[in-house]
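Cont'd.
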Amino acid sequence: MSLFFAYLSVIAALAAALAAVVVDRRLELELLVQALLRRWSNTSARLFSEARDNVLRRNGPFFLLGLSGICAVLAGAGTLASGSVLVDTLPLGLPWLNWHLRIDPLAGFFLGLLGLPLIAISLYGPGYVREFEHGKHPVSALGLFTGLFVAGMELVLLADDAFLFMIAWELMSVASYFLVAYQHDHAPNRRAAFLYLLMAEIGAIAIILAFGVLAGFGGGLTFEVFRGAALNPTWASIAFVLALVGFGMKAGLVPLHVWLPEAHPVAPSHISALMSGVMLKIAVYGFIRFTFDLLDQTLWQWGVLVLLIGSASALLGILYALQQQNLKRLLAYSSVENIGIVFIALGLALIFHSTGQPQLGALGLVAALLHSLNHALFKSLLFLGAGAILHQTHEQSLENMGGLIHRMPKLAAVFLVGTLSIAALPPLNGFVSEWLIFQTALQAGGLESGVLRSLIPTASAVLALTSALAATCFVKVYGVAFLGLPRSYHVAHAREVGHRGMLRGPILLAACCVLLGMLPTPLINAMGVLTRQLTGLALPNISALGWLWLTPVAPEVASYAPALVLVGTVAVGWLCYYLLYRRTGLEPRRAEPWDCGFGGLTPRMQYTSGAFSMPIRRIFQAAFEIRETIEEQRQGPAQVRVTALRYQFQVLDRAWLALYEPSGRAVTWLARRVGRLQTGSIRTYLGYSFFTLIVLLWVIS
Amino acid sequence: MAWLLAILQTLLFVGAAPLLAGWIKWIKCRLQNRKAPSLLQPYRELRKLYRKQPIMPYPASWIFRATPYIVFASTVLAAAFVPLVAVNLPTARIADVIVLVGFFALGRTFQVLAGMDIGTAFGGMGSSREMTISSLAEPAMLMAVFTLAMSAHTTNLSQAMNYVLDTGLVLRPSFVFAMGGLMLVAVAETGRIPVDNPATHLELTMIHEAMILEYSGRWLALIEWASQIKLMLYGVLIANIFFPWGIAQDFSLEALGFGAVVIGLKLSLLAMMLALSEALFAKMRIFRVQEYLSFAYLLSVLGMLSHIILEAARVHH
Amino acid sequence: MSITELTLYQQAILLLAGLIALTSFLMLGQSRLVRLVLVFALQGVLLAATTSMVAYVLEFPHLYISAGLTLLLKGILIPIMLYRLIYRMGLHREMDTLENPARVMMGGASLVVFSYYVSLPVVAHSPLVTLNAIAVSLAVVLLGMLLMITRRQAVAHVVGFMSIENGLFFAAVVSTYGMPMVVELGVAADVLVATVVFGVFFFQIRASIDSLNVDRLSKLSEVEK
């Protein structure tokens, strides 16, 4: 049954791609159909009426995408509920290797993770793409590649052999490349898309090599064979590092993250939501599948490596996010942070798993998966919200926003839920997964190695710093964009989103955030089959106190009842409100805010986004490459009186300067060396052929 | 019965918080050779504010109105989780110490948002500084908490206190360091000297007060009350985790009464220390605070390390 | 053996060991020379307290003499000498700030982990109760070296050197319950003489280069700059 839904969702996604093209070419199709009908029956029917035309063109592909999303969620829920593993072979692919498909709880979980944002996007999309209809780029191309992109991601999840996996992986990468390059008339967009494609392909090569190691030992290309491959620790480590590089490149781990802040802001917002919310998680899926399922062993050293890289990604990601002024770029850097958090949890899971504590390993895995899901929900929500602001005001820069809560109250309320979730505040969902990670880390006391025992708390202190900085970052986003006074004309005259779907999509995601934050236990219980499949153990005590309580290790170690917490907060808040407001009946009076007696506060006097994050910029100076310019305008005798100051700053990514520019230069240098072969003289080329022939003949003999 | 007791304990917490603030003020005045106001002065101020009509600045939105209620509710709930006079109460199970840190963050987030809601430079300044300081304080606090949790094998506050009570007096270097770290963090998080000065309204130096500058009337009363509860919360945490002796382990009337008296003594002692340090030290520059907090973090790290190096069981191979 | 199984006095020894490590960190972060010397004196006092505690717990009376010697020399005499030196050279207002204090502190914390890791094999094969503290003594030695590396002032170098000696002495106390009396007296005399000699050297250095900043002493390279 779940396999059926999974197929249905892939087919629906492909159909969405097809529909986008068909609807765009409807005039030709109309002629074709009418010609066919006339030949057979002489009746003439109109496929498309003019009135329904626009609605169909806009909604058709998104309806199918929504269907795909629903089917994916159903397939995921079915697999997690039944815990079954279904295998199938399709007569496609190579002659000696048919496509192997498989749906198990792990794939099912990620199908559900893909489905929820997809449903929201299918609600949101029709309103959002309306803007592109009058642009110079065809909407059909957007629809086509969106459908292919989604189908590619779903096939990655279903693949059960390396061949299909790589085909689906490439489909996902290439389709998303076209989506990033959608608005290709700006040179930076083309550059971002190229960088993305380049890094995606380097990552894919690493993944192929990793599979190659397993195939070499196992003697086949199906995952079933891989699972049986007996590797020695050295080769297993080589395969692991290759997989970490390959999947880490796609997931955006530091220092392989540089494509992410370039590519995500450039794509249309609903695509950014899919890329950031879902595609990065597909990479996480690949990593989990490879490490926990396909490799027959895990070493604790791998866990330490993953933990360190995850901590670095989390901290640097959020530090850079704090310094961004472009909202979508900020969200992209925050994805680096969240992926880092997921990898911290995975590192903990690996360490515990390989030191003979499978229960804690399972707990770390659950925390990682839950945080992946949570991030998919709130990051999609925030990207959709950023898209709605962009749609209504054509503004991406935080420095020009402000006061949107008065102009777009509904969006502001929904965005607030996303902000609180991503800032990991109780009682929302982001907090639950981080709490689980802390609980996992706290069990480090049981480890034998003292160095590991001191490393893990340090990593969790980094996590604490990260989550505090994330709160700072998103408070800044919300405060600067939605609160205070508007900083530009467009923003001051913005209107609430007109299209209903553009609000319903984010509302759906916000509802999921609240629900998962309040009642995470049923989902975590359902994930028992998943952890049993991967680590051989389900969490025994997770709901030892009942379904309201979350008790990851044991009731006496730690417990948390998010629903009761929420009820308590609301009750106390309402009681105060009742006693203080209803009973006294004193209405607040409106007045001017305190202006030091000078009069006339202007929006320019507010703290800007750059000013808000200035203390952090100064404290963590070493992490950034900051370029500041201060221009002074002077007047008066001897130019002593400063009349105007102009301050500009730019924060550059250290990884880019330290790693990518040198390697770029090295490649150019190498290419120039190789280029000397190309003399331009035909006799030299003949000489090359001649020598090649001689060498080949010598080799053969 | 246990739930009723838990609610009563929370009410006691909320009710006693202004008294503690008054006590600190009283000692500080005496230390500075001033005539002290009555201990009940904070109550009078709250009553006065409660009766006044609040003022809402023009650019403010519903966030500004809702914030005092959210801040107060989250602080009261946090107070409900922390054992004051008795351990083993059912509320301690709802949330552990990490959730407690999360609840502080929730209240703070809304206060910061309200600071930015009014669209003035002061609000933004206070908000930016508050978030910076709390981002640096949070890792130090969690590290201290982790040290504790690794010894006691729990993050549940009630269980941790039980553990310390059961093992009796043990001179743990890790606890000494963690307590030092936690005290420094507590001073920073509650906005006391040397990090912030709760008594100042000097524009360029204020942090907490800059954020809530526009609040008045009952809203201000709620926010002030919440910060008094928060101060008391940190005091109770330090007193009851590191020196839990005297807290009631069963619910008999004598035990509860004794617990109430003992916690009162412990808190008044801590308050004296705070007042003394406030009288001795001056407020720091804002960019010195990072050094202060990294020292707090260092103490917590040393606590963790000494737990691992000095205290843990040695494995004989 | 976990700490809950030890007697109160043994716990106190461990607590003092932790505090000695703390003083090493405090020295690392101190930018004023006067305070640096003060913390150094504190370390000496703590060391003396530890030694006398060990003497009491294990009933080694000769350790009392070491403790008294330590208190006298490292807690009182040497700090006073250094203190007077600083005032006579007019260095008491000078700041010797670290460029990146947070990084140095984190480096110090990793050194503690490292010395724990290194001392593991020693600790695992010994029944001595106090031996857990050997990692701390090694850390004190390493932190003293770190202090010397990160500072420019020659006086700070001397304090770093003395704190290395403190670390070694501490190691001797916790691992073998003190060195033979003759060795100890000899070392004590050496340290005292060293302080005097350093003092003479300071005046020489200052007379020739007009500063005590060791960055000015960079002619120790054969490469012409």
